[in-house]
Every structure is written in C-alpha cells, then in structure tokens.
Amino acid sequence: MDASGLRRSRGALPGFANSGDVGGLPLPGDAAVPARRIVRANTPERLDADDLATAEAFGFETVLDLRSREEVLARPHPLAHLPGYRALPLIDPAAEAREDVSRYRTLGGIYRSSLQRNAAHIAAIFRALATAPRGPVLISCHAGLDRTGMVVALLLDLAGVDRETIEADYAAPPNRPHAPTNPAGPERRDGSPIREMLAHVSTAYGTTAGYLRWLGLDDATIGALRERLDR
C-alpha cells in the first residue's frame, strides 16, 4: 500500500490525534485486511461530546488499553465505560525497573528487548485479542505509537502482511499535525524500530507464531489471532 493509502486510513476516530484502521492492508493471495477489525489509537486528554459519540458509535466490542496503571489512573480512557474495556499494561513494572533501557542505542533495540522483558504482559494481551468477540477492537496506549505499534505489527506479521507494508503503516503520519510523542524514548521517525523488532523475532523465534508459542500460546489461540484479520 502506498503512503497516500496509509494516510487515508488515518483519522478513524475523530478527536484521537493518532488513530488508524488497519483495514485495507494487503494479505497474501490478493486479499486485504477487512476494515473495522483492528483500530489503533492514542489516548486523548479529552474528547468533546460529538467525538465521544462517534467513538461509541463505532461499535467497539473490545478496547485494550496498554498503558500502565499509573497512566490509567491519571487519565482514564474515554471509552473505559464500554463493557469490553480492559486495562492490560504492556510494560511489567518490576521487569522494567531491573532494565537500563538507556543502554539501547535505538528505539528498535528497546522494542526488541521488551519482547522478552515484558513477555507475561504481552502474552496476556494476545490472549485477550484471541478470545475477544468478533467485532471491532481498539488497541491504544498513550501516544498510539510504541506499545500499540509493537502489538499491531506482531499481529499483522502473524496474519501475513509483508513487512515493508507493516513498517510503512507504523511510520505513516498521524492524522493531525501535533500528535503526542513518547517522552520516555527516542522519537519515531520511520519504520526502522519495527524492522529491527521483527528481524529479531525471525532470528530468535523463526516467526511471529514461534514467538507467540514461546510466550505460551497454543496453536488454537494463534489460529484465532490469525482469524481476526482474515475475510
């Protein structure tokens, strides 16, 4: 998919500075990811009544909030009132406290190490995705870039989206010019962090399915994850 097509996928949720539906990304066999299956987004500081009504009308069956407990308490998610909302922090605070992330020279290095360091939390996120109702799923974090970007990239890679497209989707500009950035790490500028993370997955686990098996997911759960993005 070209950059203009990726830009058109942005703005799935008005009022969310960095939202996008992964629908339309090409799959093997001339297929494409169906729309309204997975939407990625930041967590806005506030939503006006019209934007909140639009987000509610999207029909999200599941909302996975990947932020920390502290972030959730400081800024509740605007869709936390929905029955399918779940707070599932990607970052394990105890494991993170033992890790000096400043030793990694790239954002991709942080992503790569996070796959091991936060393994139990990542496993819980993918199990929740696999068992979620079939309707639309919103995956969000603070800025909709790093934690959300990692999870969506792994899901797309599992489904068979080619990696250049995954990198382009990750790096596509947000739908508003002043999207929030991650204050805790290097600013994302291109697809290289996802490229580095997925290359590590291939080297260490063979495939994303291999990584998910290492996390403890069985083949039935992995199959259910693939089916989330099929026709």
From TrEMBL:
One of its GO terms (molecular function) is phosphoprotein phosphatase activity. Pfam families: Y_phosphatase3. This is Tyrosine phosphatase family protein. It comes from Blastococcus aurantiacus. Residues 168-191 are annotated as: Disordered.
